[in-house]
Amino acid sequence: xxxxxxxxxxxxxxxxxxxxxxxxxxxxxxxxxxxxxxxxxxxxxxxxxxxxxxxxxxxxxxxxxxxxxxxxxxxxxx
Length: 78
Hints:
The protein has helices at residues 52-55, 65-71, and strands at residues 3-10, 15-19, 27-31, 34-38, 44-50, 74-77. The chain is mostly beta strands. It has a six-stranded antiparallel beta sheet. The mean pLDDT is 89.
């Protein structure tokens, strides 16, 4: 099952945020550079990737990781 998540990148703090619209967070878990938010049904409803421009792997065609991250508007999570 694939779900759509809103995406937002904060360049000042270098955090990429993915959030399922309208979801309530019941519990969060931190693992390395990632915070994972779980909803009331135990499903992932949000992710925060810390230091995103440093920890993500980008295709060689990407000149500016920051611009690439800033251009993301929606993501799928399977």
